[in-house]
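Hey,

Quick one before I head out. I ran the complex with cobalt (II) ion overnight. Inputs first:
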Amino acid sequence: MTQFFHGIDKVTFAGADSTDPMAFHHYDPDEIVMGKRMEDHLRFAVAYWHSFAWEGGDPFGGQTFERPWHPQDSMERARLKADAAFEMFDLLNVPYFCWHDADIRPETGSFETNLSTLNEITDYFGEKMQTTGTKLLWGTANMFTHRRWMSGASTNPDPDVFAFAAATVKSCLDATHKLGGENYVLWGGREGYETLLNTEMGLELDHMGRFLAMVVEYKHKIGFKGQILVEPKPQEPSKHQYDYDAATCFGFLQKYGLENEVKLNLEQGHAILAGHSFEHEIATASALGVLGSIDMNRNDYQSGWDTDQFPNNVPEVAMAYYHILKNGGLKAGGTNFDAKLRRQSLDAKDLIAAHIGGMDICARGLKAAAAMIEDGGLQTALNDRYAGWNTPEAQAMLQSDLASITQRVLDAQLSPVPKSGQQEILENYVNRFV
Ligand code: XUL
Ligand code: CO
């Protein structure tokens, strides 16, 4: 035991009537929802970076947290951080975690040293995963913090940075594979531009496409069975990021022939930054066959930047899970909390409470979503709205051509009568469940 979580007990399910702030009120891993355990639906993961590596800085101020593993510059403290992290996974009974290489080992600036410390700490993780049963939802490479990445990773004008990125992703994919990771994520925070004045966009996109193809080729070479995921985000830290949103990512994957190999990791806050809702991004990815996994958080609707707060809006989360359930669930993906404390929330207890709240919100959202699916009201309304397409004439039109359709409009003297979209009625329906 480390001292960090001293005095905090294992978090248990106490039910909706409990007033204990350190208990689950809605998340009961064993509760059966649509024939499946809640834990197996939600597949929660803790984000190592926000919960253990982040020091409480914001764009205007530095460190506010003082953790026993700060400063994060030695393997001894990397192990102490891991000890605390695995304690928290156990306290919360959370089945998965996720990491970037930079979260878990000290940064030395040398690829060779970083590789050996990455291998050392992930071996240490492996032992802990065996004894605790915690699993790895995904691993990823941080190719945005160190100054070498300032002009991009695979899209960098300097081929040596492309090489460094290739070696870095190889090392992180190897480590993810070693730990039985179920997915591997690429988020391109610097794969974009600050100004088009110095950017050869077509060349950068081709390099990014070839890079991703190499990742897929290597995945198959080593027999990694997990999903490769890219994570859309429109901007921040770059002015513009090529993986703008789900639809843009799909177009990119299709152009480089990767749409059957790569899926998407969608994040609530990124959807908002792109001017979408989370459910829009999930519905888009589902429609295009590329829904992979989710990063759950929320943005502040007044601040324009990615505040990565823990979720607290049940109706919004419910609609996200509604579209996920409609698409057959999260499958190999999961719900990763890409969410961090507010920088004034200094205590270990705050960190536990944040996860309790996030897990409870998701549990409520999932239950509401499942109730809507089981009731079938939204699906019935959809079926009614599109019922005209079930006729043989309507189906035949899709195999026809503009001239024949025009003839049919004339012959049948078609004169469509507009029908209500019933939005308010449907919104009132959803309100019964959330
Ligand atoms: C950044 C972000 C990342 C990715 C992983 O906004 O979401 O943490 O999830 O690199
Ligand atoms: Co994310």
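The chain has a mean pLDDT of 97.

Talk tomorrow,
K.
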